[in-house]
Here is the input.
Amino acid sequence: QVQLVESGGGLVQAGGSLRLSCAASVSIFSINAMGWYHQAPGKQRELVAQISRDGRTSYADSVKGRFAISRDNAKNTVYLHLNSLKPEDTAVYYCNARLFGAMAAMTDYWGQGTQVTVSS
Here is the structure.
């Protein structure tokens, strides 16, 4: 079982920055991939950024060049740096931990979510 606790959301003006944190209850070395998703009202949850165990990163096209995902292995924490924020970035942001088990079985764990609101 993996518990994830997010922090760092809030209200910011367009063009501003925020840093989200996700603290895991286990060593993140044991997690195949960690990521951030967002979900706006009435929309599906979407992947924003992901970082693999070996440090490879990937981003949604809408945030490339503006957001950056990073990890601090010593603190078992993953961060999402949000820069040049736009009103359309407004959403609840969820931290995700993905583990692959036997026969490629996949298990996802989620944090409780943190609200990011960008005013125009």
Observations:
- The chain has a mean pLDDT of 95.
